[in-house]
Structure formats: C-alpha cells, structure tokens
C-alpha cells in the first residue's frame, strides 16, 4: 500500500506531473532540457527528478557529466495504466501543450553546453 501511495504522491505535484508528461511525449531528456521548458533552476528540477526516481517513475542514464532521464522501462502495471490514462486525459491540457511547444522551440536553438 505504501508503494502505491508514493506513486500517486509523485504525480500530485504539478511540476512532477509536467515532467512525466514531457518524458512521455519526448522520450529521454536531460536536466537542461527540462530547465528550459519549465523555466526552473537546476536544483528544483533535479529535486523533482530525484523524487520521481525514488517513486519508480524514471530511469537515469549517465553520459559523461550529463544525466538523462526517461520514463521507467520496468514500471509496474499500475504505472503503465496510469501513463495511458495521463496520455488520454491530461496530455491535452493547455499546460502540457505549452510545454511541448516550448521544448520544440528550445530544440530549434543552437546547441548549448548541455547538448
């Protein structure tokens, strides 16, 4: 029961929900991608990513000094079902669409030190 509560708590925060939706639509992202879209400092984004990691929502991959995040490939059945529900119900909210547009604009810019 405690694990299930943690799964829902992770999605209860608007920033973490936005991160999950971005990872769902864009795939693997680094912290700087998320910082640019969410307009939040690295420490805040990293803190939310750490929470999502502890809640089994994301996997981490290191490449050099950069950390890349993606939705967990080993997620439980409930998480997979919740992701489908999110995609159908929440993925079209104005905030989610705005985040996807912001990410597309960010990717059009010349590569930063992050990429």
From TrEMBL:
InterPro entries: ArsR-like_HTH, HTH_ArsR_DNA-bd_dom, HTH_MetalResp_TranReg, WH-like_DNA-bd_sf, WH_DNA-bd_sf. It holds the Pfam family HTH_5. Residues 1-97 form the HTH arsR-type domain. Keywords: DNA-binding, Transcription, Transcription regulation. It comes from the Bacteria. PROSITE patterns: HTH_ARSR_2. The keyword Ribonucleoprotein does not apply. PANTHER family: ARSENICAL RESISTANCE OPERON REPRESSOR, TRANSCRIPTIONAL REGULATOR, ARSR FAMILY. NCBIfam families: HTH_metalloreg. This is Metalloregulator ArsR/SmtB family transcription factor. It comes from Pelotalea chapellei.
């Amino acid at each position: 029961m405690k694990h299930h509560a943690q799964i829902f708590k992770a999605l209860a925060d608007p920033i973490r929900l936005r991160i999950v939706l971005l990872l769902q639509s864009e795939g693997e992202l680094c912290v700087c991608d998320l910082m640019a879209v969410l307009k939040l400092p690295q420490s805040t984004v990293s803190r939310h990513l750490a929470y999502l990691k502890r809640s089994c929502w994301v996997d981490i991959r290191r490449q050099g000094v950069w950390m890349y995040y993606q939705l967990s490939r080993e997620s439980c059945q409930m998480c997979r079902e919740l992701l489908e529900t999110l995609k159908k119900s929440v993925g079209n909210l104005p905030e989610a669409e705005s985040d996807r547009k912001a990410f597309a604009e960010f990717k059009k810019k010349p590569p930063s030190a992050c990429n």
